[in-house]
Write a structure and sequence with these properties.
alpha/beta, three-stranded antiparallel beta sheet, 14 strands, 40% helix, globular, binds pyridoxal-5'-phosphate
Length: 370
C-alpha cells in the first residue's frame, strides 16, 4: 500500500507533507526570522489556553518527558511536596521523576480503567497540609482515559494548592481554558495533537509562579526559570535549539489554526474515534473503556479470545498494509491500542478498518470478542 505507513500510535505521529517540508532549511539560531518564529510560537501557545498576560510559554529541547520533568523540578520547591494522581504509566512516571530529583512525593492510585478521584484528592489535601502541588494527567495515554480535570482543578484551588497538568496527549485537541480552570502550569509537546515533528516540549506557566521559581531546579538544562529568562532577554534558546523541529512546529501551529484550532482538531479526532470504535465493535472487539470515559486520542481494545489471533502477526500484517498500531501497556487486562490522532481523517481511518478486516480474514479470526 503506502511506502510510508500511517502511524495509529500515541506518538511520534503522522504529520502533513507541509510540516515535513518546513524542515528543509537550515536555520541559524540567531537568524532574525528564526527568532520571530520562536516568539510567534510562544505567544500562540499562550493563546491556546486563553492565558492572556498571566501565562508564559517556555519551550524545552527534548521529548515530552523532558518538559514534564522541567515543570516538576522548577515549580515544586525543594521543600515542597507533590501529590500525584495516578491511573497509568504517565502518572507513575511523574512519581518516579519526583523521587529521582529528590522531592517529597505521595500518590493516589486508581485502576487504569477508572478515572482519578477528586473525592480522594479532597480527603488527601484536607489531611496533609505539607502538600504544595498536585500533578494530574489530562488524558492518560496508557489506556486512553479522560481524567476529570475540571473537578480536580476545583478541588486543588479550594485547598489553595497548585495544580500541574501533563496534557501531553490531549493538548490542542481537548480544551484547557485557564480562565475557567485554575492551574499553575501545563506541559505538552510538539508531536502529539499539534502534529509537529518530535523533539521539543513546552510548559505554559503562570508568570507569578515562574518568577518565584528561581533556584528551585535540580538541573541546569531543565531549569524552566532560566530558560524563560533566556527567552525574555533575547528571544533565543539558551542552548542549541532544535531549529528544524521549531520550524515544523510553527507550520503545524498554522495548520492547527487553519483547521479551526482546538475545536476543529478535536472534531476531526472525535470523528476518527467514531469510525474506529464502531468498526472494531462490528468485528466483535471490545473497548476497555465505556464511551463516557474514552478520550478521542487512543483506544485500548481487549485481546481477542480467538486462538487464531496472534498479536504480533496481526501487527506485522497491518504494518505491511500501511498502518502501525501499538501494543498494550496495561496491568488490568491483556490489550492493544489504536490511536486516532495525527494527520489522519475519515479516509485513512476507513482504510485502516478495511486493512484490519482483511488481516483478520487472512488470519482466520472469526471474531474480535475477548
Ligand atoms: C507521550 C506522553 C508523554 C511524554 O512522552 P515522551 O515519550 O517523552 O514524548 C507524557 N505524558 C503523556 C500523557 C503522554 O501521552
Amino acid at each position: 500500500m503506502t511506502a510510508e505507513p500511517y502511524l495509529l500510535t500515541p506518538g511520534p505521529l503522522t504529520t502533513s507533507r507541509t510540516v515535513k517540508e518546513a524542515m528543509l532549511r537550515d536555520w541559524g539560531s540567531r537568524d532574525g526570522q528564526f527568532i520571530a518564529l520562536n516568539t510567534r510560537i510562544r505567544s500562540r501557545l499562550v493563546e491556546l489556553i486563553e492565558g492572556g498576560d498571566a501565562f508564559v510559554a517556555v519551550p524545552v529541547q527534548g521529548s515530552g518527558t523532558f518538559a514534564v520533568e522541567a515543570m516538576i523540578g522548577t515549580l515544586v520547591p525543594r521543600d515542597g511536596k507533590l501529590l500525584v494522581l495516578v491511573n497509568g504509566a504517565y502518572g507513575t512516571r511523574i512519581v518516579r521523576m519526583a523521587q529521582v530529583i529528590g522531592r517529597a512525593v505521595t500518590a493516589i492510585e486508581t485502576a487504569e480503567d477508572l478515572p482519578v478521584s477528586p473525592e480522594a484528592l479532597d480527603r488527601a489535601l484536607a489531611e496533609d497540609a505539607a502538600i504544595t502541588h498536585v500533578a494530574v494527567v489530562q488524558c492518560e495515554t496508557t489506556s486512553g482515559i479522560l481524567n476529570p480535570i475540571a473537578e480536580v482543578a476545583a478541588v486543588v484551588a479550594r485547598h489553595g494548592r497548585a495544580l500541574l497538568i501533563d496534557a501531553m496527549s490531549a493538548f490542542g485537541a481537548l480544551p484547557l481554558d485557564a480562565r475557567a480552570l485554575p492551574f499553575q502550569a501545563v506541559a505538552a509537546s510538539s508531536n502529539k495533537c499539534l502534529e509537529g515533528a518530535p523533539g521539543m516540549g513546552f510548559v505554559i506557566v503562570r508568570r507569578t509562579a515562574l518568577e518565584q521559581a528561581k533556584g528551585n531546579c535540580h538541573s541546569l538544562s531543565l531549569d524552566l526559570h532560566d530558560q524563560w529568562r533566556g527567552f525574555e532577554a533575547n528571544a533565543q534558546w539558551r542552548f542549541t535549539p532544535p531549529t528544524h523541529v521549531v520550524a515544523a512546529f510553527a507550520q503545524a501551529m498554522d495548520e492547527h489554526e487553519a483547521e479551526g484550532g482546538v475545536e476543529g482538531r478535536g472534531g476531526r479526532y472525535r470523528n476518527n474515534l467514531r469510525i474506529l470504535v464502531d468498526g472494531m465493535r462490528a468485528l466483535g472487539f471490545q473497548t476497555l473503556l465505556p464511551d463516557s470515559l474514552q478520550a478521542p486520542i487512543i483506544v485500548t481494545f481487549r485481546m481477542p479470545a480467538d486462538p487464531a489471533f496472534h498479536f504480533q502477526t496481526f501487527y506485522d500484517r497491518l504494518r505491511d498494509r500501511g498502518f502501525v498500531i501499538y501494543p498494550g501497556k496495561l496491568t488490568v487486562a491483556d490489550s492493544f491500542r489504536i490511536g486516532c490522532i495525527g494527520r489522519l481523517g475519515a479516509e485513512e481511518m476507513n482504510a485502516a478498518m478495511q486493512a484490519i478486516r482483511e488481516t483478520l480474514a487472512e488470519l482466520g479470526v472469526a471474531s474480535g470478542a475477548p
